[in-house]
Automatic annotation (TrEMBL):
GO molecular function: peroxidase activity
Keyword terms, alphabetized: Oxidoreductase, Peroxidase, Signal
The organism of origin for this protein: Vibrio variabilis
Signal peptide: 1-22
Lineage of source species: Bacteria, Pseudomonadati, Pseudomonadota, Gammaproteobacteria, Vibrionales
The keyword Flavoprotein belongs to this UniProt entry's keyword annotation: no
Protein's recorded name: Glutathione peroxidase
InterPro entries, A to Z: Glutathione_peroxidase (IPR000889), GPX_AS (IPR029759), Thioredoxin-like_sf (IPR036249)
CDD domains with a match to the protein in the record: GSH_Peroxidase
Amino acid sequence: MKTTWILLATPLALTWSLAAQSASCPELLNSKQRLLNSNQTIDLCEEFKGKTLLVVNTASQCGFTSQYAQLEQLHQTYKDNNFAVIGFPSNDFKQDLGSEENTAKVCYLDYGVTFPMMARSSIKGASANHVFSKISEQAGVEPRWNFYKYLIDAKGDVVATFPSSTLPMSPALTQTIEKHL
């Protein structure tokens, strides 16, 4: 009789545990994303829950592409303070042409990016990936161009947006990050 009770209780406990985990994950992070030019996926909630994030839509052939260098500097400056930069390449503005392999070359070889870069995806409109769909809902604004930046606090809420023209190491951006660390 005890065995039957344990067998019946175990699936129920597992269901409650999974529901609690899902509920504790901010909706914005509640997805798995494939890494750039890779078959590997990461669970955003497991990787980034409780961290302050700068989420950026990127492009490898844009006038703002040189911002990768400052994004990497920003990542290195704050990564030990529960902070991460996450890049989402997109061709929505027709400036990330070619293959993901080419995009990866620009990121990793040309600019030495070590922060996580997700696979190329749409970042606006009905086909936007889950993260940008939720960001746009919260912020009330879709990316207007490449290298649009969204600061997400440790609770998973969008707390600031920065246009493409705002450099990653600008005082306006770094001071806002520091307020939320």
